[in-house]
Design a protein that fits this description.
mainly alpha, 2 domains, 91% helix
Length: 111
């Protein structure tokens, strides 16, 4: 599929380049200036189409790809945080038990 897109992009780029050349030649004469401007605008659109055919998706739609990457990273972060939360719960239970023993020991020595 990728080589086919590259081939189509190359052909569209060639047509756009030729249309651009014709548009510049038409703009050289005052009488055909409106036609030349229209042909140049069409050449510009075709150049954009050829670029979209050859570029990868991330370059064509940077906003969408950034959103996808952010969602993937957020999902991974949520998994990490939940795993960390369970560890904190386990460790805090151990700490409070140890802390409680030390506190009782300190109270008994003060009395």
């Amino acid at each position: 599929m990728k080589p086919l897109r590259w081939l189509a992009g190359g052909l569209v780029w060639t047509v756009a380049a030729l249309l651009g050349l014709v548009g510049v030649l038409l703009c050289a004469t005052i009488v055909l200036l409106p036609v030349g401007i229209a042909v140049l605008m069409l050449a510009r659109r075709l150049l954009w189409v050829s670029a979209r055919l050859t570029l990868p998706r991330a370059a064509r739609h940077p906003g969408q790809e950034a959103g996808r990457a952010a969602r993937r990273r957020a999902k991974a972060l949520r998994k990490t945080v939940q795993g960390g939360r369970e560890q904190v719960r386990r460790r805090s239970g151990k700490v409070t038990k140890k802390g409680g023993k030390a506190l009782r020991k300190a109270r008994s020595t003060l009395r």
